[in-house]
Specification:
This protein is mainly α and 55 residues long. Helix content is 58%, strand content 0%. The protein has a domain of 27 residues.
């Protein structure tokens, strides 16, 4: 974050109206439907398979 340490302001920080969907979008965040699908899959695993997931 070299620019921030140098005190430079980004346009979005200076003018809040420039914020859009991608300002707060986290493509790595889990959605509720993805978490539910994972939980369903995990519940069907054998104890041995679960041990591989937590290792």
């Amino acid at each position: 974050m070299r620019n921030k340490s140098e005190g430079q302001k980004f346009a979005v920080e200076a003018d809040g109206s420039l914020q859009d969907f991608y300002t707060s979008y986290d493509r790595y965040a889990s959605t509720p439907s993805a978490k539910q699908a994972y939980d369903e899959l995990y519940s069907k695993l054998s104890p041995e398979e679960k041990s591989f997931m937590t290792a």
